Inverse folding.
């Protein structure tokens, strides 16, 4: 789908809301659009019509996707994601070395206070480091 087709997509989803008696907020609408963005609008329109003929519940994105269509993976997006993930890990490792208390606070907020990273940090302290290539903790 093209970004310019969002209005048509939204109208289709609002139709589902009326038929199935469920409303979705703007954030959920955007999540649906992003989940289905690689499906051409013509195919999505056809899948929506088919779904309406047999369904009992509000559709999930998988219900509107052609059966043989797996999400298209873009190598550039994958590379950009991997690069951003590695930079985030490096930033966290730098923070852990510079300010362990702030690192523990941030990790506890996102992963929980009893997560493996915090447990290992408490046990091994500054001897602990994250091996970015192997994606594991080392002492």
């Amino acid at each position: 789908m093209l970004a310019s087709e969002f209005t048509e997509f939204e109208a289709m989803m609002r139709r589902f809301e009326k038929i199935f008696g469920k409303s979705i907020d703007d954030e959920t609408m955007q999540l649906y659009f992003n989940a289905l963005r690689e499906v051409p609008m013509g195919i999505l329109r056809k899948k929506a019509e088919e779904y309406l003929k047999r369904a009992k519940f509000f559709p999930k994105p998988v219900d509107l996707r052609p059966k043989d269509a797996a999400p298209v993976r873009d190598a550039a997006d994958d590379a950009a994601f991997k690069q951003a993930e590695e930079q985030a890990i490096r930033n966290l490792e730098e923070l852990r070395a510079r300010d362990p208390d702030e690192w523990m606070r941030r990790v506890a907020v996102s992963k929980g206070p009893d997560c493996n990273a915090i447990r290992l940090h408490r046990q091994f302290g500054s001897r602990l480091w994250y091996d970015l290539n192997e994606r594991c903790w080392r002492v």
Summary: Strands lie at 129-131, 136-138.
